[in-house]
Amino acid sequence: MKPRVFFGADHGGYNLKQELRAHLEKQGYPVGDFGTFGTEAVDYPDFALLVAQAVRGVQEAGGAAFGILVDSIGQASAIAANKVPGIRAVMASDAYAAKSSREHNDANVLCLGGQVHGAGWAKDLVDLWLATPYGGGRHQRRLDKIAGIEKRYQGGGK
Hints:
Blueprint: E1 4-9, H1 14-26, E2 31-33, H2 44-60, E3 65-71, H3 75-81, E4 89-91, H4 95-103, E5 109-113, H5 119-131, H6 138-154
Parallel strand pairs: 1-2, 1-3, 3-5, 4-5
Helix pairs in contact: 1-5, 2-3, 4-5
């Protein structure tokens, strides 16, 4: 069974989100779409939060889920999504970054730019990213350190 993929976008990423969602639906991925559902101006943090919470919720319940966020560039949504503990959101503009983010960092949210990624290139990146397994091993030690940082600061710690 394929993992669930949750989508979110702001107005700058709406068109690319629509193409990516249809692309994954054709491949049999179960998808959820938190919007936006048009090109009127909206705030990307709202959608980043919804996607990050959904991914975290499914993963905490033992399921498999990923998120794909699309804003104008991709970076802003990554910043917002990474505020949710357990989320490792990355912006990937090339195949090496997409593959490495999954293999080394167990990234669970991919952020793309509707104004900088063409649909064909974005589809290829998404396919590669979803197909790349987490490598585990020596990389887990680093993820454990990231989780430790999150725990330290969740309560306003120093």
